[in-house]
Amino acid sequence: MRKVKIKTKKGQVRIILELFLFALGIMIALFSSTFFTQFSGWISKTAEEDQLKLASSAISCGIVKAHELNANAIINLDLLSSINENSYFIEAFDNQLLLYDIYNYSLRSSIGLFYISEDKNINGSVGSSTGKIIVRASEYSIEILR
User: Fold this and answer.
1) What pTM did the predictor assign?
2) Do residues 89 and 102 touch, judged by C-beta distance below 8 A?
3) Which of 5, 19, 37, 100 could join 108 via S-S bond, C-beta 3.0 to 4.6 A?
């Protein structure tokens, strides 16, 4: 029986393998970059949502304090002027407090003000750019002002 020799060109195989390894390295680098970019965006969004919840809690505490002090109470609150480098907007209506990112409405926080009677009208809307808001209570209403 005779052995058949198969001629291979080792130089060409090595170049092809090197190209495959290079392409694999590029794919891993692109995957890693995409993964960390997406992960960073998710972390940023989660942090902004948490900070909006904290700000809404602080504002609701100010509203409750104004309600407890009854008529003619004025409370000054210092807030962050921006969250994650974005301004946000504060709205109060129908015993609800809503905070949302001006540039991305899907990032928002809403708190119901259940502990305040329905006969008090809670209203107002303020942007966060000043970093301060005023909660003013009168006999029949609570207002949020700049």
Assistant:
1) 0.73
2) yes
3) 100
DSSP of 3-17: PPPPP--HHHHHHHH
> Tell me: the pLDDT tens digits for 73-124?
888 998 888 887 888 889 988 888 888 888 887 888 888 887 777 777 888 8
Domain boundaries, the chain: 38-145
58 burial (CB, 10 Å; 0-12 / 13-18 / 19+) is middle
pLDDT digits (tens, 9 = 90+) for 55-72: 888 888 888 888 888 778
Compute the distance between CA of residue 2 and CA of residue 107 in angstroms, rounded to an integer.
76
Could you tell me the two tokens for 26?
């590029």
